[in-house]
């Protein structure tokens, strides 16, 4: 599903260039549940954003579902992302002008899902995450944990083939975190490919493979769990 060859992210400087990612190679097969771990500033979120086609890379090649992302224009990349990828952001990225219901519904509008089906899918997410009573509230009226739940619901409502999760349980209390990871595990068993960034060994244990990033470099070979 994902093949990265020689991916680097470079910010040019007057004296020295800054490498956020340096010559990263790795592959993710469809149906895997892969974790990326490493210290803060290692490039984990940048790598996830590149895979999600939200950020450009400076060097290398990226293939997603056999499509050469490095050769596609912005429109084609956006179409691929909307059709196949769900993204859980560490900082929520909810649309402030939309209610909880409308935020969760947004990916379905992009995919032109029929109105009746949209309502059914959104209601299922509201119920699954215990936020039915929050459906008419705006993000500013929610706690950080509630916003995170809405972001997770929005990411998975359309049944993406690839789920990218950046510290998905970082703002949740322990029970919510465990329930969310159990949902991820079931999604993966049902065929969703998952790539998560986390500092949590407990969350990493839900996956089948761990990759380590340090100073923009993959420091070791994938370890089967």
TrEMBL record:
**Which key words tag this protein in UniProt?**
ATP-binding, Nucleotide-binding, Transport
> Which SUPFAM superfamilies did the record assign?
P-loop containing nucleoside triphosphate hydrolases (SSF52540)
Q: What domain of life?
A: Bacteria
The molecular function terms in GO held by this entry are: ATP binding; ATP hydrolysis activity; transmembrane transporter activity
Q: Does the keyword Protease apply?
A: no
Calcium listed as a keyword: no
Q: Identify the Pfam families for this entry.
A: ABC_tran
Which protein is depicted? Phosphonate ABC transporter ATP-binding protein
């Amino acid at each position: 599903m994902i093949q990265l060859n020689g991916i680097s992210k470079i910010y040019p400087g007057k004296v020295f260039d800054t490498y956020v990612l340096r010559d990263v190679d790795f592959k993710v097969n469809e149906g895997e549940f892969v974790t990326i771990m490493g210290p803060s500033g290692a490039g984990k979120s940048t790598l996830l954003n590149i895979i999600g086609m939200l950020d450009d890379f400076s060097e290398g090649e990226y293939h997603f579902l056999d499509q050469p992302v490095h050769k596609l224009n912005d429109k084609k990349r956006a179409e691929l992302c909307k059709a196949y990828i769900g993204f859980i952001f560490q900082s929520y990225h909810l649309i402030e002008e939309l209610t909880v219901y409308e935020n969760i519904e947004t990916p379905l509008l992009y995919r032109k899902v029929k109105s009746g089906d949209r309502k059914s899918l959104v209601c299922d997410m509201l119920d699954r995450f215990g936020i039915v009573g929050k459906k008419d509230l705006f993000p500013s009226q929610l706690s950080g944990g509630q916003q995170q739940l809405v972001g997770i619901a929005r990411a998975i409502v359309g049944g993406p083939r690839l789920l990218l999760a950046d510290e998905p349980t970082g703002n949740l209390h322990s029970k919510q975190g465990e329930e969310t990871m159990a949902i991820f595990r079931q999604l993966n068993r049902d065929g969703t490919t998952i790539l998560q960034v986390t500092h949590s060994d407990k969350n990493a244990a839900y996956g089948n493979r761990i990759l380590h990033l340090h100073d923009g470099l993959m420091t070791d070979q994938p370890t089967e769990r």
